[in-house]
Amino acid sequence: MVYHKNLHYLGEFIYKGEKDMLAVGTKAPDFTLLDQDGNEVSLSNFKGQKVIIYFYPKDSTPGCTRQACAFQAAISQYDEKAIKVIGISKDSVKSHKNFATKQGLTFTLVSDPDRVAIEAYDVWQEKKLYGKVSMGVVRTTYLIDENGMIEKVYEKVKPDVNASEILEYLNESKSE
To answer: In 16-147, where do the E strands start and end?
Structure first.
């Protein structure tokens, strides 16, 4: 198993129960992982531009597909603002490639099977579904600023509106 330099192993899971997300104003943890084409992607490569990192549970599931398609529908607006969009899940490179191809996704999907970034960004949490408790990725989005600092955190996001609420925030902060 690969460990991020800032992670501490606490047994089978990084933690149990509710956990606070990384705070606004803190340094975003760097990572180097493979994208849907097998290329290495590091957050540090995007210094000088804003980056949206959205964590989602699983490729090709209804909510994750809606969220990815919403980001794709808004991708030209993010491109105009020179903002990089990166989706991260535990799925394999091959799964990401199939998902991106099937849905026509042109932005980066990063494979994190060892939960390096997932745990570094505190999105591996206890989840309850139909009374069953398990560990998994909590749908969360981070907006990283040009200096690699966390500018905004969107917790427990709604897949259909996540992309548009970030654009709304960016447009509001630009006009201030």
So the answer is: 32-35, 40-42, 51-55, 84-89, 108-111, 124-129, 132-137, 140-144
CA distance 138 to 88: 11
Known catalytic residues?
Answer: 64
Longest Cα–Cα distance of the chain, Å, equals 47
Band (pLDDT 50/70/90 cuts) for residue 9 is: very low
Report the distance separating Cα 35 and Cα 123, nearest Å: 19
The predicted structure's pLDDT at residue 16? 36
Q: Report pLDDT for 129.
A: 76
Distance, CA of 99 to CA of 35 (rounded, Å): 12
Q: Classify residue 104 by burial, with Cβ atoms within 10 Å: 0-12, 13-18, 19+.
A: exposed
Q: What is the pLDDT of residues 18-76, one digit of tens each?
A: 445 688 999 999 999 999 999 999 999 999 999 999 999 999 998 899 999 999 999 99
Q: What angle (nearest 5°) sits at the alpha carbon of residue 54, between those of residues 48 and 58?
A: 145
Q: How many helices (H) and strands (E) does the chain have?
A: 5, 9
Alpha helical stretches, state H, the chain: 62-73, 75-80, 93-103, 116-120, 162-175
Token representation of residue 46? 């995007």
